[in-house]
# Entry
Amino acid sequence: MVAAIIFVVSVVTFGQFALYYWRATISGVAAQAISDRIRVAAGIAHAGIGARDFHNIVILKDLSPDLRGPSGSLMSIRAYYAAVETLGKIVPAMAGWADAEMATCSRYVAVLMDQHLERNMACAAQARGV
# Structure
């Protein structure tokens, strides 16, 4: 019985650590600079990428070809965004936190999309022989 309790506590602790690590990785990537071409391509008029721009950037990602590099489907970040969005609607006291988290998700996807476009442009330049 004691072994089972220790095992359950260990699994929960490991899961918590994995979630914190994943969240820190997303924050690190989201802190990188985003080019203006992403804002223009996604139809984002304002200077900063906010919480509500996530879907526009994901649509842009789905429409762009994958010429080179990993083609991640962004399933985990989409699920996290949806969960945080729902939590922000259900618990009004968490709306501010939810908006900040959704903005981080939007910036994360924008950085990945910027890198994706950069790889595609490099591949196209290589194909042209430039």
Q: What stands out?
A: The radius of gyration is 18 Å. The chain has one domain: 2-128.
